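Input set for joint prediction.
Command: fold jointly, output tokens.
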Amino acid sequence: MNYLEISHIKKSFGDLEVLKDISLTVKKGEVLAIIGPSGSGKSTLLRCATLLETMDCGSLSYLGEEAVKAGEGGKSIYASPSELKKIRRNFGLVFQNFNLFPHYSVLKNIIDAPIRVQKRKKEEAIKEARELLAKMGLSDKESYYPFQLSGGQQQRVSIARALALHPNVLFFDEPTSALDPELTGEILKVIKDLAAEHMTMVIVTHEMNFARNVADHIIFMDQGVIAEQGTPEELFGSDNPRMKEFLGKFNEV
Amino acid sequence: MNFSTMLSQLGNGMVTTITIFGLTLLFSLPLGLGITFLRMSKNGVLRNIAKFYISVMRGTPLMLQLMVVYFGPYYLFGIPISRSYRYIAVIIGFVLNYAAYFAEIYRSGIESMPAGQYEAAQLLGYNKVQTFFLIILPQVIKRILPSVTNEVITLVKDTSLAFVISVSEMFTVAKAIASSQTSMMPYVAAGIFYYVFNFLVATIMEYIEKKLNYYR
Ligand SMILES: Nc1ncnc2c1ncn2[C@@H]1O[C@H](COP(=O)(O)OP(=O)(O)OP(=O)(O)O)[C@@H](O)[C@H]1O
Ligand SMILES: [Mg+2]
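tokens >
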């Protein structure tokens, strides 16, 4: 079954057409990386997929449940709020700038939604949160507040927070680009470990080597369209001039 | 008049002042939040009503507002004013005025919150009410506390405006005794009272600010 299915998404901000007919599918356990130049619409695509932004045209479904249908002329029709609420449980998102709740301790950041939203038992939520923190190498930090942690630690907490809700698909929007280079590795390692456990993930990243190593499938976006896609081997061996230019810029820096 | 009668009269004024202060905060803080919701509502009519209300409350003297609340029912509707109404009027007047100021403070705090906090809450499945009261409001309170402190200190001094409708709070009493006894003493006592009161208020607010310093 397709865990995520996006068909013919279009999205404009005023006169600016940011997404021009994008379709993609992600299967269970698959890791999809999305790369592309700045302003090509990667974040907008993720924000549409996670219902933070409303798309104009196209459809969106998780595990066969339709969050957005395409109606007449492809126009998007959103499911009812109660259906959307149910569908939201399928996915989580890790933000570039973490967005932890600063007034909650690390532990509370992780357990509050499972307890309050998913009505799980407190002891059970705490037990699981501690396991996640151990996995993230943050066992000694549960009573810290976000401002007391490094960027890399905050990002690991935010990954734990997303995982605590057991999403079927986890999205990452440039999870390392707010971090110092020496902290990037620790986050990439966490994501690699998740991939090894067959977590279904969609990752927007500027880390080309990482995308190459961890992704099953890579999409290269350019000016609101999928300019190229395939396995890492196919993509990095591609003759597409835009793709070559883009990779060339990376090799220069 | 001996010294102890004077003190006991000033003491009564003091109680009235503290009551006005306490009741005003009790009602205007939540009412202000309600006005902020209207002021930030998606509905343009509600938004403009709230905006107009706030501009009138902030744009006219509180003293005048107290007189309107007190005398208005009689002049506008011919309702006779009972003696005890002046105490109700003074609370209504203060609450309506301070709620407008608090509304603007809440709004500035709410608008300063980054969108990422709302987005994270949405992704985690919190509903709108949970998001506001669990995630946003606690952080807003921390951000606006210094402005609230300013307003609360102003309120301590503003309570003396109740004299315009002859509510016998501290200042009214002090003035009456001073003129009947031709003495400065009551004014000195009143001054000390306001100063000590404000000192306590500032200390309490500082304590709350410290309490909220556990995060940034
Ligand atoms: N809320 C918005 N209102 C108006 N324009 C927007 C909005 N969000 C994004 N855009 C525009 O849409 C285009 C695509 O932005 P997007 O953030 O999706 O790019 P991106 O591929 O994620 O870039 P980057 O690699 O820099 O993060 C940009 O031109 C941007 O200015
Ligand atoms: Mg982006």
